């Protein structure tokens, strides 16, 4: 009994150890005569595409030809006798009607079919067919090199798609049925720039990675994940695939260089960093255990340039700008955060010529947007109604890199063309995140005498994404 229990326990342990092992698969291909010149390249793409799947792994050295005279039943039986549980078969045909040549026929169509059978049961477990129209052999192979592994993985639920991305969370269409587990890390990507030759023929596409996500919750058919990287770049319909590196620290960037207010970090396009994204800089204060520490945020960086393996940015506006610049050092960790500077919509009232005898009141609606190239610069526009019609547009610049105090100049039309030189102060409110009370005083010049002189404006600023949620 003890020996039997020991054997049973050992069997269960081995089954657990190898339960995720890939199944062996035999691969065959058949290619139309018109494509014989690309047969080696096609077979290489087919073989590597199937090898990229988590479920299957061929122990053979390549692809066998179908032109062996054997029937499908014979091939299935032969594979089963060799203890190969699966068999894949790919056929590349060129169907044409009433044509002397495959390129000259308007009805010519290149078609690829890939099917997989269970050799023991004879059941077809997978089938995929794609028509490519008229395409040159070289272009077809290049296109398949990107498309085929992606299509196979999607059909076998190894690659999913983003359903929705919002506020640092991503919902994607792989769940418990696809063996997704809480805590797993997935990469998010999409087809990038299409490659064309001199004739304009497509040669596939470059892959663009848009982010890294970590699974928080798993349902039967979908999962919810938090964004580790790519808050601005991840979009609905992006592809989702398990990351090769499941260690979260692999996606934790560091400052690699700094000069004055310029900072370079060790994360780039390969992990989904985009221009305009924000990264917080942290210092570890006290170690807890296993690499975990209490930490403090010392500053924020806005990314301005993105390369493959690194990115460059500038220290973001802060009321402790000088202290943040002094405390940031090479080796400090960085982590992507929700952008703290957002496009804003404002509603307020402008009182003109407050020191004069005939003051006026104008209800204003405004919009402001940070410059994409200069951290301190903000563009803005206003329209107003009341005692007169107001239309203005201008720029404002941060005072000593403060995130709350700005000075600037508007060009305006207020019963005449003029300008407004102003000082603006944003006061955070407890009512909602990023909602500010704004107080502004300025001096209007060049318009109607009634409105010239000192003015005072009070308004409430709302983030644009907050309005979108209403």
Give your account of this protein's structure.
This protein has 470 residues and is an alpha+beta fold. The protein folds into 4 domains: 22-153, Rossmann fold (3-Layer(aba) Sandwich); 159-242, FlgT, C-terminal domain (Thrombin, subunit H, Beta Barrel), CATH 2.40.10; 252-337, Thrombin, subunit H; 344-468, Porin (Beta Barrel), CATH 2.40.160. It is built from 6 helices and 25 strands. The strands form 4 sheets. Strands 18-19-20-21-22-23-24-25 form an 8-stranded antiparallel β-barrel. Strands 6-7-10-9-8-11 form a 6-stranded antiparallel β-barrel. The protein has a 6-stranded antiparallel barrel with strand order 12-13-16-15-14-17. A hairpin with a 5-residue loop joins strand 8 and strand 9. Helix 2 (39-51) packs parallel to helix 4 (137-155).
Quick structural overview:
With 470 residues, the protein is α+β, with helices and mostly antiparallel strands. Helix 2 packs parallel to helix 4 (137-155).
